[in-house]
């Protein structure tokens, strides 16, 4: 696909740049994204961050590129290149990580592909207006990268027509701020693995039935959470894709998690790299040949990641002549990725929770009974099953190495905090220290490097599957 920007794109760029210059001011300017930051981090004024989301919604900047086959939901129409333009201008402005990433970039495309008209009409407009924030209930303590092993259960009450959910989710980004959670739960008694799962939309405001416990990280923040469901209620009409079809819906969602936001993430990476290079020049560390070589390598690898992302996006936009390429829909996928729900920087995940590429097969297994809407040509996502895993391997290791460089160029000074530690402020970090500490998780969350390599080996290269018990 040709990613050259035409006159319409440049007009769109000017509009986006002017809007950001006019609106990203005053109290919002205090939310400026810092190097080493993460969109889900519990830093900054959450009230102001919610207000900024609503400002974006009022401006029509949420949901660019949503499928408009069934109508618009309060947002602007935008081509793929225009989505890239907006993402670039947003990142260049230093605007804060998006609290609404999970709803906008994960749930919305899933509802457009699998939801019914009532579900789309109910949930998409509030997402576009930033009135409702979402979190993702996938990973569990004993089912992190093995999503098919989840144990959270949802039992249908035949009298009330509702589902009662019991279980635990973990690494749930921004659950402490979310209004809703989409939950993958087991709804068929005795079912195993990917069979008998359902995709439910659950309101978070259920005192006594839903408990959120923040998980404190090395950076001192707590954007990730444990979520405990004790008879939490989900309405039957908020079941997406039909009972027992949750695996197909969940895999479709994971396939869209890396899109335009990948390019946004790389813009943030480029800004971080520039700051590290400037620091190396200021401290004289750039004079050291080995370190200078590492800085150049970081730059070259970032360029390679950008072109790989553009190639993947271009391929995803081409018509799919065979929307169901899997000749054996009953094949049990050998490996099922679950997110830790970490958000991707500057997007979207994103969140995290962004969230990171999962790489699981969206075509396997097929439903055992007819469902409301099977995945087809409307499903977004890369055509190459290995593309998300390759992207995750590239950026996870790259960003972690950048964090190591950030402290290496500072030398011994990297061990000191930016201010004297006191009882009132016991854990102050500067931007480079946060970058180093948070990036330690980059090769783990969103599917560890080991999981990504296994996916590539088994599903792309068709090497023998490793033994699983």
Description:
With 469 residues, the chain is an alpha+beta fold. The protein has helices at 7-23, 46-58, 80-92, 101-114, 117-128, 246-255, 260-283, 289-317, 387-408, 431-438, 449-460, and strands at 134-137, 153-157, 162-169, 180-186, 197-203, 210-215, 224-235, 239-240. The strands form two sheets. A four-stranded mixed sheet has the order 1-4-5-8. The protein has a four-stranded antiparallel sheet with strand order 2-3-7-6, with no helix packed on it. β6 and β7 (224-235) form a beta hairpin. α4 runs antiparallel to α5. The model is unreliable at 322-382 (pLDDT under 50).
Topology, please?
Elements: H1 7-23, H2 46-58, H3 80-92, H4 101-114, H5 117-128, E1 134-137, E2 153-157, E3 162-169, E4 180-186, E5 197-203, E6 210-215, E7 224-235, E8 239-240, H6 246-255, H7 260-283, H8 289-317, H9 387-408, H10 431-438, H11 449-460
Parallel strand pairs: 1-4
Antiparallel strand pairs: 2-3, 3-7, 4-5, 5-8, 6-7
Helix pairs in contact: 1-3, 3-7, 4-5, 4-6, 7-8, 7-9, 8-9, 9-10, 9-11
